[in-house]
Amino acid sequence: MRNIFDQYDKQENRLTHALICTLTNDKGLILPFLHWLECANIPPLKNIHIGQQQSPGREAKVEKEGEYGIPDACFFDDDGWALVIESKVQDKIRIKQLRKHRKTAACYGYENARVVLIAVDHPSKSQILPNMHYVPWEKVYQWFVKHTKESDWARRFVEYMQVLEANMISQGYDIRGTLTMFSGFNFDEEHPYTYHEGKRLIRLMGQEFRKNKRLVKELGLDPKGKGKKGINKDEKIWDIIPSKKAKGKAFTAYPHATIFMSSKEAGVAITIPNGLKGGMIRRLNNFGIDKFGKLLAGIEENLRECIKQSPGTKPIIYILQRQYRGQKSHVKNGRLEVDLRTLVKDEKTGLEHQPMWLEAIYDILTHKRTNLQLGIEVRFPYSAKAMQSAKALDVMADAWIAMKPMLDFVLE
């Protein structure tokens, strides 16, 4: 069934139409929204007219774009106050178009019309006009998220933006930035996890984690490094953030940070690929099983605060063996995964101590004869309260930093 907001073919027009429909149907949002756009001298609500695909003071679709411009939307009264909106998603910002909107409004008696640009791209200095305001779509999304509890139309608009962005990503549209912002893993029976929504969230998380200065500094991640998205047969999706050490080289020769999502949980991991350079087996043998055990115990202790904030979280160490049948084809011959808490003799973990797992992991790694990948991952259930807001990213970043001792060991 077609969404009530989908009345245009172009993404810019769809989003603007959804925005105006929302404000038209919930007029209580109009004045707060205009104030948020930093408009001055806003007239009483009863005097404000709203238009789509028209200039202030004119009926929709009367004029043709040429010497004059037709904004995507406008707000105006009958006494010379006006605001015109130009919306951009895929199309690039054009300064001539913005000037046309202002010129057109002036011709109809609105000489001081305020221009608001809502776009994915940030305008350059030369694209900023006097009395113009720029706001990214993701900030518009964030503003409406804050009003979802009081407005059913705000909730509809937020959900529409999520679906639209997910569909654009799945259909291969080139979105240079983002339309929405990460606001948690809000899955439930009414809004279950889907592959398309997972792809949207993985993209948002990747961008946010790349901007996290703690991760870049302490883990040595490359914020501009190219990711490598993937999906397995169980529809578990993932992306990576490479190490700075891998710059200009194959990311598989160095440890990297991994983000993943599945139907019930999301997580972060430190992945140590089979192709790691630097003689890890030699270091493990020199290190000894006791020191290796203390290393893992230290990581487990570091992760306790993350688990406390997000009950149900599992810290896992795993070994994965793949058999490659070509450059892009492989099968998984075996996987050993163990809850880190079982490696520690401490009643606070709540799990029974099992030293045999440490012996098995150490023995497999020091006697490996085939392709092996080592990793530590932390799995966060969507049901945990900490995962249902934007603060989830902070908890996940803390988990990555808690795993830093493993990075220090393999890169020393």
In brief:
This protein has 412 residues and is α+β, with helices and mostly antiparallel strands. The protein has helices spanning 11-25, 30-36, 95-107, 137-145, 152-170, 195-210, 213-219, 280-287, 289-302, 304-309, 355-366, 392-402, 404-411; strands at residues 49-52, 73-76, 82-87, 114-119, 132-136, 230-231, 237-241, 256-261, 265-272, 314-324, 330-339, 372-381.
Fold topology:
Blueprint: H1 11-25, H2 30-36, E1 49-52, E2 73-76, E3 82-87, H3 95-107, E4 114-119, E5 132-136, H4 137-145, H5 152-170, H6 195-210, H7 213-219, E6 230-231, E7 237-241, E8 256-261, E9 265-272, H8 280-287, H9 289-302, H10 304-309, E10 314-324, E11 330-339, H11 355-366, E12 372-381, H12 392-402, H13 404-411
Parallel strand pairs: 3-4, 4-5
Antiparallel strand pairs: 1-2, 2-3, 6-7, 7-8, 8-9, 9-12, 10-11, 10-12
Helix pairs in contact: 1-5, 5-6
Note down, in words, how this protein is organized.
By secondary structure, the protein is α+β, with helices and mostly antiparallel strands. It is built from 13 helices and 12 strands. The protein has a 7-stranded antiparallel beta sheet, covered by helices on one side. A 5-stranded mixed beta sheet has the order 1-2-3-4-5. A hairpin with a 5-residue loop joins strand 10 and strand 11. Helix 1 runs antiparallel to helix 5. It is elongated and about 80 Å long. The termini are far apart. The relative contact order is 0.09. The mean pLDDT is 87.
